[in-house]
Amino acid sequence: xxxxxxxxxxxxxxxxxxSSITYELLGAGRRLADALGEKLNxxxxxxxxxxxxxxxxxxxxxxxxxxxxxxxxxxxxxxYAAAIKKACQKTSPEVLLLGQTSVGRDLAPRLAFxxxxxxxxxxxxxxxxxxxxxxxxxxxxxxxxxxxxFLCEKTRPQMATVRAKAMSPVEPDGSRKGEVVKLExxxxxxxxxxxxVETVKxxxxxxxLEEAAVVVSGGRGMGGAENxxxxxxxxxxxxxxxxxxxxxxxxxxxxxxxxxxxxxxxVAPDLYIAVGISGSSQHLAGCSGSKHVVAIxxxxxxxxxxxxxxxxxxxxxxxxxxxxxxCGELVAG
Length: 333
Ligand SMILES: Cc1cc2nc3c(=O)[nH]c(=O)nc-3n(C[C@H](O)[C@H](O)[C@H](O)COP(=O)(O)OP(=O)(O)OC[C@H]3O[C@@H](n4cnc5c(N)ncnc54)[C@H](O)[C@@H]3O)c2cc1C
Description:
Helices cover about 30% and strands about 25% of the residues. It is built from 9 helices and 17 strands. Strand 2 and strand 3 (about 15-20) form a beta hairpin. The chain binds flavin-adenine dinucleotide. Flavin-adenine dinucleotide binds near residues 262, 263 and 280.
């Protein structure tokens, strides 16, 4: 095994700014680096990255490597993998973290193969034993019904992708010192086998589900698309977003982009209100990081009540109008 040291995280940019997963990876990476007594290196890949690289130091990075090239403007697997490989050659990381995003999901297996190391994807917990220097990589398995812990004992880096919202960023500290280092990557246009065509942005009204502080979700118990107007009214009052369970989305009551759960979005709002949702493990996999859960369900035995802090046992058609009214009064002060 070659000598390896430090933790390397691969940040992501969206519209020229670090996306939320970058701060989450920095948080996870900082905690691991501190436990190992090592440096935290971050890598940003793009074109015309500019000052945002230096900003990552306040968020926990000791050194920010920047791979900046017009050919790296949009995500393409070959040159991005080459840039990360180069950063690995330069830093020989003990731990390498990427986001469980569309980019990370595509890149991580290629990189693990290229680096000859093991990989655990979609991790929600990372802990390190400073004595053995092994990171326990924890990820949900069997549709979220169990958690499996993995160790990468023989090869380096110990590699993982990290689920969005599973890790918290550190408090930014503007007085932290660090450096930004340009990473020379020879991008060979001829090596690019996948051609970037275009990014199609989905138009969304209001607050994005993943960023909302309040999420009001409806399930099969809502009974039809027309009843979601009540959830929208509550979400609007609380400046939140509307989500739903898989059956609600599969029934076309709301777009599939609003699905919460194992095969949908992971949300971690301050308040999650589940209406007519039974609380299957697959649904909870997407909202168990919420600070407070409130449930409205007519079945007192519904699993959702096991995770809800407050609940109404009853028909949502009776409970919701009163809740919307009361919330409206409280918000109005
Ligand atoms: C591999 C896999 C991945 C999956 N991924 C996801 C996922 O990402 N997200 C997801 O949500 N599911 C997912 N599922 C589906 C999951 O297993 C459940 O089937 C689903 O979450 C159930 O949705 P639900 O709670 O809306 O419906 P149900 O389980 O049918 O629950 C409806 C609830 O509404 C209540 N209710 C009915 N009428 C009323 C009323 N008038 N007032 C109040 N309460 C009422 C009922 O008591 C019941 O508890 C996945 C399944 C698999 C196998």
